[in-house]
Amino acid sequence: MKFRRAHAALTIDISHCRGIVAAYEHMMSLQTRQKMIQSLPNELRNKWHLVVERLTVLFLQFLEYVQKLQLFIWWLLELHIIKIVSSYIIWVSVKEVSLFNYVFLVSWAFALPFSQFRPLASSLCTVWTCVIIICKMLYQLTSINPSTYSKTCNMPDNYTEAQRLDMAKSLLYSGPVDPANWIGLRKFSPLLENLRNNLLMLALLAFEVTIYRHQDFYRMKSNLTPPVTRTIFHNITRQHLDDGIINCAKYFINYFFYKFGLETCFLLAVNVIGQRMDFYAMLHAFGLIAVMYQRRRKNIARVWAKYCCFLACMLAFQYLMCIGIPPAACTDYPWRRPSSSMDSNVIKWLYFPDFHTKPNSLFLLYDFMLLLCASLQGRVFEEEGAAPVQMLAGDNVEICRDLDAASFSQHNPVPDFIHCRSYLDMLKVIMFSYLFWFVLTIIFITGTTRISIFCMGYLVACFYFLIFGGELLLKPIKSILHYWDFLIAYNVFVITMKNILSVAACGYIKALVANHCWLIQLFSLACTIKGYSKPEQHAKQQCELPSDEAGIIWDSICFAFLLLQRRVFMSYYFLHVVADIRSSQVLASRGAELFQATIVKAVKARIEEEKKSMDLLKRQMDRIKSRQQKFKRGKERMLSLAQESGDSHSVVKEEEDEDEGDASKEKKKGKRKQWWKPWVDHASMVRSGNYYLFETDSEEEEEEEDKKDDDPPKRSAFQFVYHAWITDSKTAMKERSKERRRFWQRYTESSTTKKQPKEVYVAMEEGGQEEAVAEEEVEEEVEEEVVSEGPDNILKRVFNILKFSWVLFLALLDNLSAFLNSIGQEHIDISTVLRIERCMLTHEVKKGNTPSRDSIHMYYQQQMGRPGSAQSSLDRTEDVCSDFSPLRTDLPQPDYGMDGGESDLSRENLSSVYTESTVLYESTLDQPEETIVLKTSQRARPRLHRLPSVDLQSSSSEHTHRSELYSRQGTSDTIEEAVSEPEPPHTLWTPSDIPPSYSKATGLDSAEDLDVRRLRIQTPEEKSGCQSQSLLSMSHQLTANELLQSRMFFDEDLEESELFYRSQPQLLQLCYALYNLLVAHSEMVCYLVIILNHMISASVATLVLPVLIFLWAMLSVPRPSKRFWMTAIVYTEVTIVIKYFFQFGFFPFNQTIERDKSKPFHPPNIIGVEKKEGYVHYDLIQLLALFFHRSILKCYGLWDEDEPRSGGQTSSSHDSDSEEKADASPTHVRLPRKHHQSNSLLRRQSSSVSQRSARSKAGSGKSVRRSLSALQKSRKELILDKLREQLIKAKRFTVKTVLDIYIPIRQFFYNLIHPEYSAVTDVYVLMFLADTVDFIIIVFGFWAFGKYSAAADITSSLSEDQVPEAFLVMVLIQFGTMVVDRALYLRKTVMGKVIFQVILVFGIHFWMFFILPGVTDRRFSQNTVAQLWYFVKCIYFGLSAYQIRCGYPTRVLGNFLTKSYNYVNLFLFQGFRLVPFLTELRAVMDWVWTDTTLSLSSWICVEDIYAHIFVLKCWRESEKRYPQPRGQKKKKVVKYGMGGMIVMLLICIVWFPLLFMSLVKSVAGVVNKPLDVSVTITLGGFQPIFTMSAQQNQLKEITDADFQTFVTSYKFIPSALQFLEAYTAEDVTVAELEGSSNSLWTISPPSRKNLMDVLSKEDQFPVTMSWSIQRNLSLGAKVEFAVDKHVTYLDMTTRQELIALLNGTRNKAVVIEKVFPCFIRAPSDSNAKPIVQLYAADGYKSVLLDLERSQNSSEQIQEWWIVDQPSAGKIQMRSEAKLEKKSEAGLQLYVFSDKVSPPSLGFLAGYGIMGLYASVVLVIGKFVREFFSGISHSIMFEELPCVDRILKLCTDIFLVRETGELELEEDLYAKLIFLYRSPETMIKWTREKTK
Predict the structure, then answer these.
(1) 1504-1517, pLDDT tens digit by residue?
(2) Exposed, middle or buried, 444 (CB in 10 Å: 0-12/13-18/19+)?
(3) Packing angle between helix 1692-1703 and helix 1645-1657, nearest 10 degrees?
């Protein structure tokens, strides 16, 4: 009670706070505040008062928020306290299984589903908890001793020893049994810790009562009623579900269980089954089946109470099983008695009570969770029928199953989300449109991750729905649910069967492993539940348990997604998806039509452009020739005048000669011209250029139409950076913001003009708008300047840098998005058009009409023919109709208000309509169609837009020339041109000029049809019919770009969607662009996945699709057909099923996997059915890619072809084509053939019927005769006749089958070689690059293509002058294919290219996958280099197929890299020209295979000029794109950056040898340690007395400490320290030479006597000590051995001692003074000199010589010399062996090894310093000098201001060469040569063009 009073007081206090806040705010009105402010003495107090006032208000608001939070927490507790209490009580009961806790479990098991018992359960549990606590505390009394009444049970005698050991763990036999434990009482300490669970339970029950009472009291006090629904956000209802993501999330927080509680219960039931997998899990599965069998929600609600009761009873009964019988009775269960054979695993699976292993009581928690959710769902079933709940949460009534979703045209209660106007719409599209395909992917994964017979059903179902899913979605909902419920039933059946079979997997697994292994692998039997004993797995055991492939985890995931998709099918939202699919089906071939229109427009534009260029060139050369004739006549006249003035004495004679006949003069003149003409041969022709060749250029430039100034292009990110570079970041950002404002202003103006009716704005208004915009910009600039004023401190700079970086990042994102969108712009346009047209069809459905494509075209016709555009439609009608007879001006025609000029203009309009890509029909006159046509000067021209796919140089259309020509009609220029031109100006082309393959593409007819139509005279009725027909054809032929620019349909949803997408941030825009790119090239993704799958699998099964890709799909025009994609899909599915079937472990070849893993020709590996991990991963990705592409094709209207293509020139197709030409409009590019095909089909059917009737009549007569003659034939003849008939039938069937296969293939390749239209392309350079990469892979990875060449290296093989055969063959074949490819390209033979492609595809695939693995003896999938080579070759195949499909270009203009002018192309082109022999080889090959009049030198001259001009053009374009302001000095960054780098580079080159030779050894040098050190001592010239070598272990390394000690010993000798500075410890090697010579001293007695004589007589006797040091030659040493020697002359005393030693009279060793140099330097050359700096004043070391004698077994005397050093070495070698052998003689030689250059730099270091200066520096200096000098000589050809005219002249030479105009080629080459000979002409010709 105190708690309640305190809480009530707190509630009242907080409620009073609201009143205080309101009163305080009311008191602090404006006047009160002013008075208070005035009353304060100073300004400081005013401020503090405001602060205190604000803090007070904030504190009171904080208290209010605290109160709201408190109320919210109380409400949450009220919602969930029952779940908390029941869950905790059940958890305690399960943790402590006893009879006491059974009361808790039973009370809550039945209180949850039956809510009326919940208060009783709480009260009962409260009382019972108190009782348990008291009992437990009493049991702890010391007076109670369990040992007094505990009972010890005895084990029966008939147990075996194994059973006894096992049963010793049982509760009965492990110790004394306390009877109180079974009840729930036991001794424990400490007391409080063990009573914690019961005390917490009591507290929770008290807290539950407190919560309910508190809420009742609060509502009574506040006069509130309990909420209708138990929700968190009370203001969110069903109406807010579609208002955005946040409201949608709030709605699902409120009502998720209300909507999806039933599915949650089903999932929890499956979770119980998967977690337990025992007998009761099987009962749960049966219960789930019984409930789901009802199917409908209302039927399930009817049986739900029974299901809850079933769950409660099962929970109570299982707890009883856990309690079991009291153990104190010492009676074991029947299944544990000795007579029972039941296995422990079976007892555990049956969940029987057991003293040995108690049932796992934690399993009951899963049952309780299911019971709890089922109870909550029962409450949902009760509430969902109430009207208030339906108003707030929406109803749960299922959609009508009889509804046909595809024809649903009534009002849909939910909004349309297909057009994505918000992020919520995008989520809905993902959920309702794409979830179906994602669910099928989950089904596929479920089927393939487990290898069992059940999972194959998943695969079959998945493939069925993948293939027929699109058609299934269009069926009535009842049919959809029928199929889907069948799939769910199969899923539940598999889960149930796995549960039932778990008794075998867990209980009888030992017997199955021993006898029925195939059963285990067939059903994937393995126990997945912990606690079961498993059989031991032996290494030799054949049967392997599929433990990773068992369980129902993936089945459960599949079940969840199946239920979710079922709810999607039952949703009204899904109806919008179906409507969209239906619209897409109506437009199934609309995308193909739009693509066709685009391709045909481009083809026509290209043909017309080539024709126009040729006409222009011919006109130009005709003008040149006429000027040339004038020039010649003038020259001859000047010569004749000169002759007259010089030969005045012969005038009389000439007058007499004039009286003779002129015939003789003409004869002589003709003969003279026959044997001498100045341009009769090629050599004189190409050098005969003169100034007259350039006199018509100004006229030609006047003919070009002034191009309309388009809007300036948006600056790229690089231009933005450059602008910031030359100015500063602030200025660049200001300029960019101005550009963005102008862009959005233009965009908004254009969008408003699109939406509003088209009007003519007054110029004053426009001017006013422009002034207003200018004023706004000025004001913004002023504001920005004011803001930017102030000190420019570090913070501002950092902020500006960050801002600039952010703007640059956004600009890069914009440019990248624009670039990606430009790649797939055509697909984006078509997608937009189809989206608009689907919206139009949806509007038709809403109106109650049947949607069709005709309705769309009718709408377009109405829009094009509306009164607002009457004149434009009339223009189009005249254009189309007048073109029926282009030459009709020769005939008398009726006048319809159109003169000759207008007819010419109409033809011009027609040509421009079909030349340009986009046409916008607009007009400013509102008049009916009967209005008289205006004159030419008064007519408004259609607004034209450029075709994006046509090159900029060729973008001016026929309209350009014609409009210029007709605008100057009547002038003298036109008359002169008309006189000089050989063709009439209005003739666009003649049929003879057009290639036959373009006849269909351009819609031009043959000359005969033109003659027929020329005779037609139109009547007004025909003219009106012509207009409607032209409108119909125009609506079919409009491209996507045209439809978008002439936007005829507007919808609010579409506008909102477009605005939503445009308002996305740049990062999302980039994601959209990437998705659009993926969609636009989805077929490439399919090809890539198929090829990767084949590269990894490398089997026959995966080989089929790549071959089909390169020989079918990529060669299909214009795209792969539906048949190919269905073939690929079905083939992939069949392959997966076959692979899946062979994954079972009981096949013999799957039992020897490890042994056959490395065999390349193992049959399962070759076929592709080998058992391995991830066998189907890539097949899944391939299947998903194929279906994704299929969905894209359906969405884009490319899945179905509207009109079949006919390519072969068969008689029927020829007839139908002729009929089409006679009836249809010539403006069609692809003529409609349905009508004519139906006519021909009817004719064929009628002819076949007549033939059949004739055959039947003849057959009836024959049958009568046969029946008469059969009586006379014998039985043998009858059998022979029947056999003959069967043979004839078999022959017919065989021929028919072969023809059915052969004819389509022949027709396919015929259509490929003779296409209807040819959208030519040029990808040769990309093919060449692919071949080059393959060539490089062969060179650097050739070891991968041989069996034993893995360790070989191509460089070592070539250095030994040995060329490997495999390498030679592959290189030659690769190079040969490149040459053949170039020849085919230059000859443009498509047939040859097709044959070459087929041979290469089959040959390379056969070699790579069947021959190469045998050669290399390793699988293709393990050969990375071969995989890389094959992948690049596949890229080549794809490019080659694309080239074949599109056709070779008619104009091969220059290099691929010269198509655009920028830095990238410039540097790539320069790199291309630097490759040795590549440019020369290309030029010679081009000259060989191209028809030309030029010699090879002239050809190379033109190529060089073109390359030079292209480089100049790139530089000029970059100067325009990145301009530098005038008068601005170069920045220091540029000067020090570029100039400083050049200075550093030159300095480095000058001093390079010194730096290199010093650094290469000190920094990058390696220590070349000695391998062998040998010392030899010789007395005089006699045989050596001592020879010893030190190798391996005798060559010691010293430590750093020893080396430092050694250096310290020379600290007073500067020269020694200077020498030692260059060495480290690793450079010093100590050679320990043994004292005894390694060879006997074998000297003859005479020589011995001679030696003693020499020692005693000669004045000087030398002792020579020589040494030899061997190094590793491969590490960089110049020579292998470094040798030297030292000679010392002995004094007389030493000689006498040696004589005594030789005589044997001396036993002591002789000291030889200063003979041994112990410090030797080993440089890289052959001289190993002693190190003079390291010897002190005493010089070299002395040695001791001793002669040792002994006798061998044959008593022969043997002698050898022993050498020792009297003093120890400078460096003591710390080794145990040395200390032990301290007394032994020997020498220590210290070798200082110089570092040598590493082998990688040996080729440079080998030259030495002088060699480097002579070879490297001088050569580089010569090149640098050529760069810095001689620039003045090339200024004339380098500093050309404008090279456009020269570039055009070069391209004109290429053009006339390709078109066969070889005389024109000579003329233009002569012009080019003269241009380079005449500096004056070059200056005139390279001036900037004046506008």
Answers:
(1) 888 888 888 888 78
(2) buried
(3) 160
